[in-house]
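Supplementary Methods S3. Input chains for the assembly prediction are listed below.
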Amino acid sequence: MSNNAPLLEVSGLSKRFGGLVAARDIGFQIAPGEILGLIGPNGSGKSTVMKLILGVVRPDAGQVRVDGTDVAGWPTHRIAQQGVGIVFQHSRPLHRQTVLENILLALLPDSFLRLRAGRVALDRARAIAESVGLSHVLGRRPGTLPFADLRRMELAKAIARDPKVVLIDEPFAGLTMGEVESFAELIRGFRAQGRAVLLVDHNVKSVSALVDRVFAMYLGERIAEGTAAEVVQDPQVREVYLGGGMTTATRPPVAATGRKPLLQVNDLSVLYGKAQALDRVSLRVGEGEFVSVVGLNGAGKTTLFSAISGLVPYQQGSISWQEGGATVPLAGRSPASIARGGIVQCPETRELFGDMTVRENLDLAAQHLPPGEGAKQLAWLYELFPKLQARERQTAKTMSGGEQQMLAIARALMMKPRLLILDEPTLGLAPVIIEQISRALEVLRNTTPITVLLGEQNVTFALPHADRVYVLEHGRMIWEGPPGRFAAEAGEGYL
Amino acid sequence: MFASRQFWAAIVVVVLLAALPLWLSSYLLGVLTIGYYFGVFSMAWDLLFGFAGEVNFGPTFLTGLGAYAAGLLNAQGVDLPLCLLAGAGAAVIGGLALALPALRLSGPYFGLVTLVAVLLLQQCIIIFAGVTGGEIGLTMNDILSIDADTNYWIALGFMTVSGIILFGLSRSAVGLILQASGQDAVEAAALGFNITKHKLAAFGISAFFSGLAGAMMVFYLGTASVGIVVDIAIGVQVIIAAILGGRRTILGPAVGAVLLILAGEALRPLGQLSTFVVSAVALIVILFLPGGLLGRVLRPRGRA
Amino acid sequence: MLTVQILIDGFAISALYGLGAVGFTLMFGVSGVLNLAHGGIMVVSAVTAWVVAGEYGAGSYLGALAGVVAGIVTSFATYFLVVRPIQRSRAVPDVEKEVFVLTGTLLWGIMLQEAVAYFYTDNPKTVRPLIEGVTVLGGVRTPTNEYLIAAICWLTIGLLWLLVNRTKAGKALLAASINPRGLTLLGFELSRIYLLVWAIYGVLAGVAGVLLATFLGTSSAQAGQLTASAFSIVVLGGLGSVSGSLLAAYIVGYLETCTAYLVSPTIRSMPVLILLVLVVYLRPQGLLGRR
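Predicted structure tokens for the full assembly:
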């Protein structure tokens, strides 16, 4: 640590999974006492890079130098011994041991001859616990801790190995605003100790206050590098996160007020284990309305939609729905019954039946329609997405990402939904494809009375269609209004 | 661990058990003796499942190897103590052979390999009936003792020593590392632990005690046969005992095994129904008390 | 002569193995359950057929029918009394559900086996053949019943194929094995799909059990062996792959028959076990399995 030679030096790192390029020629350096943010939306390959550095996945090519030693291709435990520590986003602590024992675990030597951890180790575990603010819960079991303390424990475990390089996966996910600050302070502590820190996250915003530099990835490749401010201004980054480079017709303004609310979400809170994913979120969708919820990856859009579809239980709040002329609560209904009731979701993960053909996928969705309806609906969908008709007999998994997305949307529409939920339909797709999907949505809203709830990170895609826009950030709704006012009131702080 | 209440409770229980020959008939002592050997089988199984996270559906592969290796050597005139050592050694080799697939395979695949290992061992014993005695079994030249009390004390002592070692191991630094690798191999490796090394060690230790217990049991009984130390049904009993007593507690499985053997004996008048009743009770425990009969008591300081 | 004999016997045995394994693999593919009570259920069907046909004198056909019904009933009992309670239990952590289902069904299988043994002893029982007489083919005299059994097996497998590929319910079943979450989003209740798959499984295990009883005879002591062979075939073919199971059933069937005729009946399952270990080591996903 005497000179400023980089502690972590990645060069030419590449990995393919079958036909998918997860990382191509990735290279960056982190000096002692430097914090680098590795950012990219879901599927950009940032997690793969993290796994490659840690040796969980073997690189096809490239080098990973830790303090000068190339560790690429080594088994994980040797890389860890070489001085790489990680704070996992989802960790599985030892539930039957105390917090102190969990930290002690990280201090143990890799040997089965040492049966008892010595006094020294015990004292050191206590000292580390104190440094992250866990002294008051040392004797408790992880299962009884609040989420923030669990994350502190993971930090403590990483510190215990005294790593030269620390990887932190989504450092602030699930934390409240107040907790974020105290965590940022702990991470700054790593910098002060001269460690090299790599923060992996969805977007610049969540790490901008902390990082010295940012390395942005998309579709497995580097798209920008520089200070947080530079990266946010980078045109390619803006295109990836905000969209752009395509033409979309702006929707003629429709009076949104006074409509009957079709779906009403009130004060919804969702916890994943102990992590707060949604914090008192409210949302209203009127009949025939097109509502967009915009927010960066990890803001909680998918959680919100999953809660509406009954896939995720919620701890607080209510969701109600217009059915048969009355307002009914959705709590307690199975996801399938909610779907049959008219709320059909086209999820981010698409959830297609990969080994089945396009036609079989669509036919399954038509099974709940009255006889005869299916054929009519199918004809209409083939008109909307002519490509699907051409690929009628092809299996879903052999199609391109764009075609799969179209099939996913068509399959949801096949059910004749009263409310269509679209979660990140543009994720990872080329602008040409996004434009096609955009046009289909335009046709949809102009020719049918359908109600749509769209979740998007890509603002350029989400705004033109919308009657009303919500902005979700860190599990909370922070803005609501017509798309025209978004740029002026919410656009500035979005990225 | 020495300060814990459980430890003193265990001491009291062992002292009481050691005094049992004062009151019990030699028949009951014999049942308990078998129970104690089963206790070791179950504890050894629990070290693999509860701590290293490996579900071994064929614990009798290890006990059978130990029993037959010891028995075959004894038939060649080798001394009893050497036979015991050889039995434990053979089981360790078998255990390491099982560890190889365990490190590569997951879930049902590894479970199947362990089952197949038992079936293969069983077939080998039958094919080489000339040496192994085949279906009839192998009669030992030596036995541990002809005195029921002595046999009882040997078994109790053996279970106690094994229990102390296995329990101590589970609560030691090594136990922590094993649990961590059983729970999340990637995370444990990221903490710098060589999972392969630790799992191999777990297999070796588990196999050592299984094999030694198997060898001692046949020297107590005077015969080794497939039905007693190899059959899958015996392995199932070992697993049931561990789950019944409370997996991941080491001591629970020992208690479960003794109870199971006693129950089997008590239900003997029911004839064929006894297995049915034991299975039904075990099933009910699994459904309604998944932590095991003693899981709550023996879990370190209970889950909050 | 011997070759023809091996070909014919092997074919019939393999068809029977295939039928038993198809239900087992279908169950795993759709609901993720490895049912270790499989042999127990087959034995219940077989012995029911024997009791109804022989003891009550109702004849082979009624006996066979009763056996299949018993298969369905036992299958549902397995689901409602053992599998579902474990799957829904809050006390069992999710990561341990698989082990609990394995152990639970194993115990349940032993209970079935012991109950049968208690009421009807574990002596081998043979149901009278569905069809009498002997057929001569290539100079080999084989009971006509053996041909019938192979035919029924393939007919049942064919009907299953039609059900899965040509009916709406079958398509939903297939979809559930590919992506259960996707199916839920389309408004299908998975709980109903599971009922359907346990019903189909019951029929398959029932038919296989009854046919086994008319072919080789059966005894409650065989339950474990039957489970083990179905499990082995399914793993050999690739968990969840129906065509893989059928292929594996024929490999196992012929390997066993060859060993029995050419080497010695006492080691008939030995080569299969060794093959299984090799496949599991070298190609854990099985012959036709994907990962």
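The interface with chain B takes residues 54-56, 75-78, 80-81, 84-86, 88, 91-92, 94-97, 101, 104-106, 108, 110, 112, 114-117, 140-141, 143-144, 157, 161 of chain A (CB under 8 Å). The first helix of chain A runs from residue 46 to 54.
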